[in-house]
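Here we describe the complex-level prediction in full. Unlike the single-chain runs in Section 2.1, the two entities below were treated as one system.
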Amino acid sequence: MNNKKMLATMAGFAVVALSLQACSATGGENNGDAVDGSGKSLNVLIAANTLYPTEQQSWFDDVSAKFEEETGATVEFETFASANDELTRIQTSVLSGQGPDVYSLGTTFTPTAYSTGAFVTLGDEEWEKVGGRDKFVPASLGISGPDEANEIGVPLASRPFALAYNTELLAEAGFDAPADSWDGLLEQAKAMTHDDQYGMAVAYADNFNPWKFIWTMSLQAGNPLVVDGEATLDDPTTVEAYRTYFEWMTVDKVVDPSSVGWQTAQAVAAFADGNAAFLPMTSATSAVTFDKSAVAGKYAYATMPLIAPGETSAPQGAIEAATIISGDNIVVANYSPNQDLAFAFIKMLTDPEQQEIYFNTFGEMPTNAEAAETIQSENELLAPLLDAGAQSVGTPFSGAWGDVQLALGNVVVQLIPAIASGAVSDAQIEDQLKSAQESAQSALDRAK
Amino acid sequence: MTVTTAQSDRRIDPETDDAAGGGTQLRRKKTRGLDKRNRPLWMLAPGGVLMVLVIVIPVLLAVFISLLDLDQYSLREWIRAPFIGVQNYVEAATRSSMFHAVWLSVSYSVLVAIITLPVGVAAALAAQNRFRGRGFVRSVFLIPYILPAFVVGTVWRTMLQPGGVVNSLLETVGIDGGLWLNGPQSYWALVLVQAWSSWPFFYLLVLSGLQAVEAEVHEAAALDGAEWWTKLRYVVFPYLKGPVALAAIISFLHNINSFTLPFVLFGVPTPYDVEVLPLLTYLSSFQSFRFGLSAAMAVFSLALIAIPLAIYLRAVKLDTGDEGHKK
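The structure predicted for the assembly as a whole is:
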């Protein structure tokens, strides 16, 4: 009897839970070709902008109003605070088959999102709905999918990495512009290091920044790190990349000794205080900080060096990677009942008008070719960043990339004590790279 | 004292009955049977359902997931993820740093409990007697405990970084602080920060224990001419055995599960010296998307920690519910 009552109660719970799920799953319907969203609402998950929180809020309102004008539907924005928050949200939605209709994803996360199979593949029809594939800067499409027939991500914004430099310090030292090779850059940095001033500001303890250096230098030396599902992290070119990166601190002493514990914000702050001549691997968003700092009007951007460490010209097989394809891709969830509306929304955001608004509001580069051209012609300072974007190379499009990236970053994390002690031996680097190679390869072997 | 007598009386009764003869025994059985039948057990149903929903189902799910090859490729239809038996357990035991992580978690949790216990007891003793400003002191003592772990982590991270306040202070007395957020010292940084933020928990429980000591006991001790240390050692401390044992176990479990503080302090990827279990599980789940593997780690560690825990609970009699009577 008691058991029966308990069973009945549990069954009741289950019925309520199922009906609630059913309610939330039927939010709207597909209206065929015409996009009429009257009375509907589109849910969009996007990263919270910590630099411009108020501007982002008003951008949400403006975009929603504009979209309502065009389609009759409003846009409900939800934000996530960090990459981890983003992951958790996506996982929950993927698992439950309900949640936002549209997601804005970081580019390096796109392969992982693709591997879940939870997002709409963009065929000709879908590309047409967003205004055509050819309206985008070609390089920005490099990480939309494993190949052209299987793309899921529409590029929304581009944040290419480049080198910021202090024009005043360079001029004092007699340099016109930053060198185009890593060795050249190091020589310039040495010439500008004296007293409390350092040649470079580098965030060794950042969770995301260091692996990008290693990736860039390895590619420039001809090692793409992943080739046909095989990891090549233990290649001598990668050892050389780590050695160069560490020796800036241990041997060349062109970085602040404290930077062994720095995160990106601290490196940006050091450059903004005028204490460093170069800030490598930074994006356009740093301009916001610089314009309010001691280096306002005294800084410029350049593309990162393109010639690998130890070389004077690009070696054979080199991949001239100025930066990873960095920025945001926008994807539509498979389970969304509002897919037509979603594509109409993406079209609106990636058209020149909204792309320019996006750039003017947040300082992030357009992915729309026409808007990029307009901005390049109007904004001399940021032109090198657009150049860098055009020379960007996508990280390998594999669901295993997250693990490879983690393994690359982990090498730096585990060697921080050695860097701080003043010497990192090749044996230490090779030892760490051995386990990085193993974990990267094991992730690649699991890739489906 | 009265309680003990009443309890032993009750315990003796049935034995007398037994000695009295089989008839009485039969009656007793009958009465007991009736009692059992009439107990309104259905009233436990809401609690039971809640327990099934909140504890039993998630644990069973975790065990189930630990037997699947569940990752980003199979996440969408997770129920159909390939069943791989104990392979995840084998991988966790042989090819991951799980044992290292379990050792780190357990050792640092025990250390923190050992460090915070005397601090908490001392603070409680100091704040027990009336003095001017006692309320203020008691409030100040609680600050580390009520600060969110995120804030504690951020503040200490800033203080402990190279060139930070801690190293500058050490430098003024001629000590080179070295690296606190990576390398061997990071383990001690974790112990220090966790101890700083969790000692008021001991303080709170001990204070409540102290307030349970009746005034008569103090009077009796005074009449017998007990010195403060004798009084503390033989009169007050026995009262604190229960609260301290409870505080020790809760603090241990809390530290074993502590994720936010090490995550904020050290970030991900985590330095090997502080790769505690919650961080390793997080890394496997949310960075590598190996949900099956991380569930296996979680289940494995649950068993690993539950065994000594059960022994401890039995030893301090926190599991029988009658430690109050044994004081």
